[in-house]
Amino acid sequence: MAIDLRKIKGFVLLLGSISTLAVSASAQEGHSLNSADRISQTGRTVPLLDQLRNGLRATRPNQEEFLQHLVAQVDQGAVPRSMVNTVYKWALQRNPRVPFPYFQVAMRELAKRRGVTLL
Questions:
Q1: Is the distance from CB of 111 to CB of 117 less than 8 angstroms?
Q2: What is the mean pLDDT of the chain?
Q3: Is 38's pLDDT higher than 60?
């Protein structure tokens, strides 16, 4: 499977602008973004790691390791949860059957722009 990096770079540029605005707005409102926050859908709560693991269909040990590292970065505040959720939704739209590679490439690029190195 070939991933078109030109499309991902365009998305990353757009998302970089959006996530910067979302994080600064959130910081101004005094909100804290970390994985302790839960996504509430239909009355149920889902931890971030479970959301990513199941939604992105991560089955390989290296994928699990990447997700655990990413969640740790979210917990530390280095990567905003809103950015992770936006990339998550985008990856599912790009390829619903195999979304993980899209998610991983986009997250690495966006994190690198924030000075964070993901596995």
A1: yes
A2: 81
A3: no
